[in-house]
TrEMBL record:
Subcellular localization(s) per the UniProt record: Cytoplasm, Cytoskeleton
Name by which UniProt lists this protein: Component of SCAR regulatory complex
One cellular component term from this protein's GO annotations in UniProt: filopodium tip
Keywords, ordered alphabetically: Coiled coil, Cytoplasm, Cytoskeleton
GO biological process, one term: actin filament organization
Lineage top rank: taxon: Eukaryota
Organism (species): Cavenderia fasciculata (Slime mold)
Transmembrane segments: none
Main location as per UniProt: cytoplasm
Similarity-based family: Belongs to the BRK1 family.
Amino acid sequence: MSKSHIQRDWEQREFNEEISLNIQKIIDFLNKFDLSTRNKLATVNEKLSMLERQVDYLESAIKTVNE
């Protein structure tokens, strides 16, 4: 193997390693984003459910008053 061939091989290995690390960073970001989004959606869902119960209660109260 010539010196330039070895050098190119190392450069390719370094490039591949850099790509792998960047892919891992993207995966980590996406996993954190997924968890954060799921938590926020769960919170919104809880608030929406509470509002729906309140609307149901108010509708019942108004219906009772009107009767």
